[in-house]
């Protein structure tokens, strides 16, 4: 026990010693200290508004902590994974990813999880926003047709993944049991024009990519981390065609980006844009500006923000690029509005070249 104490003492002395810049150094040390987080007093109660991706519940305007009741069902159901391809998904709230949950820092969350009577197995939930054993996993292990309730205080703000943590955990996640919970900082997030919920994940099927019919889960491919599908929002094309996202030029856009995994790390990129702000790893500080591609870990998140300057189609990809063009990790944001020829101008494409060979 003595050694670490001595080391810490030496470290502090060295920091002060290096400086004549003592004030700056001392402030930094103060800001970086580990805070004491205490649950605030609670006023009133409300039911959480949950949304299916790509929608996000409205920003919280309350300036006090309340009791928020979240009701979320574990539901197993067969749905489209790709054209002609079905999969029996295990879900939170009937969708993949699961419903987006939005609470405020300090809120007392009463979480009620029902496992639908048609389920074939038990399910539970581990919310990474929870301070407490298993993120709620042990408190919510629920047989089909039953329900469980636990409560937690959302001590830390940030964008957190939740997922099923029932053994075998990998299979429950691989089948679609994950989503995002945003714990808004008590001072709120800066206002933006559009917010969207985008969550990447991968699927492992007996058949190869595109092989039609109801496809069962493939354990060997999952263990070897070789997915047939890598998708945004639960299926190939969930953010393409009629499902594409929309915004106008001049608007500010915030994407809450999650990665359910179960295995892959996402190199999240939007073709034709630059992230003006990135809240790395879903934390509450803008960790970097002017970013091309941000990493989103399995079981992690990021918040990215940008202003849309010119019209056209922005393409979301996992820039591990075969995943985008061969496995499904593609999405689109259509930006409508007036051209800005200074920022971007189409000139002449693919005309015969008059330049002499060099
Ligand atoms: Cu489960």
Helices, strands, pairings?
Blueprint: H1 2-18, H2 22-31, E1 45-47, E2 67-82, E3 85-92, E4 101-104, E5 108-115, E6 126-127, E7 147-153, E8 158-163, H3 169-174, E9 178-184, E10 194-203, E11 213-214, H4 219-223, E12 229-232, E13 245-248, E14 252-261, E15 266-271, E16 275-279, E17 288-291, E18 293-296, E19 300-307, E20 312-318, H5 322-327, E21 330-336
Parallel strand pairs: 1-2, 2-5, 3-11, 4-9, 10-14, 13-21
Antiparallel strand pairs: 2-3, 5-7, 6-8, 8-9, 10-12, 14-19, 15-18, 15-20, 16-17, 16-19, 20-21
Bound molecules: copper (II) ion.
Copper (II) ion binds near residues 164 and 166.
Question: What features would you describe in this structure?
Answer:
- The protein has helices at residues 2-18, 22-31, 169-174, 219-223, 322-327, and strands at 45-47, 67-82, 85-92, 101-104, 108-115, 126-127, 147-153, 158-163, 178-184, 194-203, 213-214, 229-232, 245-248, 252-261, 266-271, 275-279, 288-291, 293-296, 300-307, 312-318, 330-336.
- Helix content is 12%, strand content 37%.
- Strands 1, 2, 3, 5, 7 and 11 form a 6-stranded mixed β-sheet that branches.
- The radius of gyration is 23 Å and the shape is globular.
């Amino acid at each position: 026990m003595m050694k670490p104490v001595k080391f810490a003492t030496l470290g502090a002395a060295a920091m002060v010693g290096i400086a004549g810049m003592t004030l700056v150094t001392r402030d930094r040390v103060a800001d970086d200290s580990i805070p004491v987080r205490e649950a605030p007093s609670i006023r009133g109660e409300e039911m959480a508004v949950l949304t299916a991706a790509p929608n996000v519940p409205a920003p919280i305007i309350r300036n006090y902590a309340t009791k928020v009741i979240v009701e979320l069902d574990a539901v197993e159901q067969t749905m489209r994974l790709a054209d002609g391809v079905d999969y029996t998904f295990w879900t939170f709230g009937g969708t993949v990813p699961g419903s987006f949950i939005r609470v405020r820092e300090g809120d007392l969350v009463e979480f009620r999880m029902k496992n639908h009577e048609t389920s074939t197995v038990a399910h539970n939930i581990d919310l990474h926003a929870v301070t407490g054993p298993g993120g709620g996993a042990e408190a919510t292990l629920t047989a089909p047709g039953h329900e469980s309730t636990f409560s937690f205080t959302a001590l830390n703000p940030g964008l957190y993944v939740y997922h099923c943590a029932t053994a075998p955990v990998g299979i429950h996640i691989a089948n679609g049991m994950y989503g995002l919970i945003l714990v808004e900082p008590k001072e709120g997030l800066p206002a933006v024009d559009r917010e969207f919920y985008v969550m990447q994940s991968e699927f492992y099927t007996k058949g190869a990519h595109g092989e039609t019919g109801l496809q069962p889960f493939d354990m060997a491919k999952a263990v070897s981390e070789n997915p047939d599908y890598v998708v945004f929002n639960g299926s190939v094309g969930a953010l393409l065609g009629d499902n594409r996202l929309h915004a106008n030029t001049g608007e500010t856009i915030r994407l809450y980006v999650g990665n359910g995994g179960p295995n892959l790390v996402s190199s999240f990129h939007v073709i034709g844009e630059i992230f003006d702000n990135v809240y790395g790893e879903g934390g509450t500080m803008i960790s970097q500006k002017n970013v091309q591609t941000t990493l989103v870990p399995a079981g992690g998140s990021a918040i990215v923000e940008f202003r849309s300057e010119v019209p056209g189609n922005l393409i979301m990809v996992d820039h591990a690029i075969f995943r985008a063009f061969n496995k499904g990790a593609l999405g689109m944001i259509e930006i409508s509005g007036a051209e800005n020829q200074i920022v971007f101008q189409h000139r002449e494409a693919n005309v015969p070249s008059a330049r002499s060979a060099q």
